[in-house]
Every structure is written in C-alpha cells, then in structure tokens.
Amino acid sequence: MMGTRMFKSVTRTWNPWTGCDHGCTYCWARDLATGRLQRSSKYMAGFNPRFHPTALDVKFRPGEFVFVVSMGDLWGSWVPVYAIEAILEVIRRFPKTDFLLQTKNPARYLEFDLPHNVYAGVTIESDVPHP
C-alpha cells in the first residue's frame, strides 16, 4: 500500500491537474514541485496551475483508493469547468475504484454531479504561524 502521512488507506495518486493559486504558507506540494520535482515535465512551470490531458489516459483497478490531484487544488476558482468534467468522466469509467478529492473551496463541489465512488474532502488552512 502506498499510503501518505495523512491518508494511510490511499493506494495511488493521480495528478491530471497540478498546481494551486491559494499560496498557503505551509504547502508541502508546492515545496515538492519547486524542489525535488522541478525538472519533471509536470512541474517545469513550477506550481502554476496546469491541466495535463495526457494523464486522462489511465486505468484503475477495482479496490484501489486513489487520491486525485494530491499536487494541487482541482476545485480552485481558477480551474476551468472542462478540466474538472474531463477528470470526473474518467472517474465515472471506474465505478469499482474509490477516489479521494480534497479542496479548500468545497462550495465548488455543488456545481458538479460527483460520482458515487468519490470521497469529497476539505482541507482547512490557518493563518496561525507554526514552528
């Protein structure tokens, strides 16, 4: 099992959209994208939001738990509807796979018909400094 520090049950990540404009102070994904991953094709533009349509050509296995867009915020106001719909269409093709979505903009979930196999989560950021 792949797992992450936050989500032990995640077996895989899938990033057809990367980047974010929230500018959170403690963003591990931005640090990773502009550090260790900066030479990979997905992060040549740093952490600027980008759609990666070639990543839509993917297969998932029944029983997997996939963290969708772990390296960005798919539901940010800057994300075009067509990109979200394209990603949701792929999710619909795999009804026996579960998908985790996370956002700082949960109201945007209401604009879309989320498939039954989606766990819609929220990330809350604080302006309180951390050591």
UniProtKB/TrEMBL annotation:
InterPro entries reported in the protein's UniProt record? DUF5131 (IPR011101)
UniProt protein name: DUF5131 family protein
